């Protein structure tokens, strides 16, 4: 792991995990839950210590359900809408998000978002523009599409827990699903994902989807050789033709998100605003989490 390396954090994926994984008894001096803030700091400290990046970004959902994705596929995340276009999020977590931003800003850890784009798009844009190997820290399988060996990009997948995270590369994907990163978007489109409102193609599960991609390369190849498919699969694809194209665009992470042009992702060695961080650490009762992130940043 010597040499320059970029570490991209899927911020919401991590602070949701921290909120639901740590007890609400972790509170501020005034008794308000602060488990998401403390947990996120510990996650950042663990990965910064373990992977020693030279560049980092805390990637942000400036839009959790971008209008252009909804126009392509109205069901996209529709079941997670509380009202209007507001995501259904526990109030105790919502209250902590501004504190998370304040703490990251005081530390000098770059927060990067893009108008009408999700963190996935920010991550994809930064990863494809990086001049170093990239590791993406997330619990979102859709980002497996970024895995590739030529511009080395891995996903540090935390679904089984941060301590048990998996290093997802093409070999891992091949062993798990029978595909590589370049086939993951079409694999996800065929399989579907109820958590994102993607219905998939009825009758096509993971095994069949992987076999089709291995044989025909992509959705276009399947459609072009529909006469070589089994009657059941051919019927399934034909009945889903209006879904396939839009879903493919929805699942594909944008690599041209309008991120700021003058980004400096250099990992800070100390807080950007030590006084502000010290005040937040005291007010929010961050305790050992504050100490651990400072120690991680100060590593040579």
Automatic annotation (TrEMBL):
<dbReference type="InterPro" id="IPR008918">
    <property type="entry name" value="HhH2"/>
</dbReference>
<dbReference type="Pfam" id="PF01367">
    <property type="entry name" value="5_3_exonuc"/>
</dbReference>
<dbReference type="InterPro" id="IPR036279">
    <property type="entry name" value="5-3_exonuclease_C_sf"/>
</dbReference>
<dbReference type="GO" id="GO:0017108">
    <property type="term" value="F:5'-flap endonuclease activity"/>
</dbReference>
<keyword id="KW-0540">Nuclease</keyword>
<protein>
    <recommendedName>
        <fullName>5'-3' exonuclease</fullName>
    </recommendedName>
</protein>
<dbReference type="Pfam" id="PF02739">
    <property type="entry name" value="5_3_exonuc_N"/>
</dbReference>
<dbReference type="InterPro" id="IPR020045">
    <property type="entry name" value="DNA_polI_H3TH"/>
</dbReference>
<dbReference type="InterPro" id="IPR029060">
    <property type="entry name" value="PIN-like_dom_sf"/>
</dbReference>
<dbReference type="InterPro" id="IPR020046">
    <property type="entry name" value="5-3_exonucl_a-hlix_arch_N"/>
</dbReference>
<feature type="domain" description="5'-3' exonuclease">
    <location>
        <begin position="3"/>
        <end position="268"/>
    </location>
</feature>
<dbReference type="InterPro" id="IPR002421">
    <property type="entry name" value="5-3_exonuclease"/>
</dbReference>
<dbReference type="GO" id="GO:0033567">
    <property type="term" value="P:DNA replication, Okazaki fragment processing"/>
</dbReference>
<dbReference type="GO" id="GO:0003677">
    <property type="term" value="F:DNA binding"/>
</dbReference>
<keyword id="KW-0378">Hydrolase</keyword>
<comment type="function">
    <text>5'-3' exonuclease acting preferentially on double-stranded DNA.</text>
</comment>
<dbReference type="GO" id="GO:0008409">
    <property type="term" value="F:5'-3' exonuclease activity"/>
</dbReference>
<keyword id="KW-0269">Exonuclease</keyword>
<keyword id="KW-0238">DNA-binding</keyword>
<dbReference type="InterPro" id="IPR038969">
    <property type="entry name" value="FEN"/>
</dbReference>
């Amino acid at each position: 792991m010597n040499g320059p390396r970029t570490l991209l954090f899927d911020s919401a994926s991590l602070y949701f995990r921290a909120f639901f994984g740590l007890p609400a008894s972790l509170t501020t001096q005034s008794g308000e839950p602060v488990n998401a803030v403390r947990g996120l700091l510990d996650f950042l400290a663990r990965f910064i210590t373990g992977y020693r990046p030279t560049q980092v970004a805390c990637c942000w959902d400036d839009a959790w359900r971008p209008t252009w994705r909804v126009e392509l596929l109205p069901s996209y995340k529709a079941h997670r809408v509380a009202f209007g276009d507001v995501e259904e999020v526990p109030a105790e977590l919502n209250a902590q998000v501004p504190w998370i931003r304040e703490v990251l800003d005081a530390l000098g850890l770059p927060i990067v978002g893009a108008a009408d784009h999700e963190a996935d798009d920010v991550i994809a844009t930064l990863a494809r523009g990086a001049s170093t190997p990239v590791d993406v820290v997330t619990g979102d399988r859709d980002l497996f599409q970024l895995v590739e060996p030529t511009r080395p990009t891995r996903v540090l997948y935390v679904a089984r827990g941060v301590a048990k995270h998996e290093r997802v590369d093409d070999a891992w994907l091949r062993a798990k699903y029978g595909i590589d990163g370049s086939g993951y978007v079409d694999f996800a489109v065929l399989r579907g994902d109820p958590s994102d409102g993607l219905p998939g193609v009825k009758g096509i599960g993971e095994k069949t989807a992987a076999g089709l991609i291995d044989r025909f390369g992509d959705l276009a190849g399947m459609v072009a050789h529909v006469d070589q498919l089994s009657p059941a699969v051919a019927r399934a694809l034909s009945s889903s033709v209006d879904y396939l194209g839009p879903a493919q665009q929805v699942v594909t992470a944008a690599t041209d998100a309008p991120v700021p042009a003058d980004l400096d992702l250099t990992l800070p060695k100390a807080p950007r605003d030590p006084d502000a961080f010290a005040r937040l650490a005291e007010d929010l009762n961050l305790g050992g989490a504050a100490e651990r992130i400072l120690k991680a940043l100060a590593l040579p």
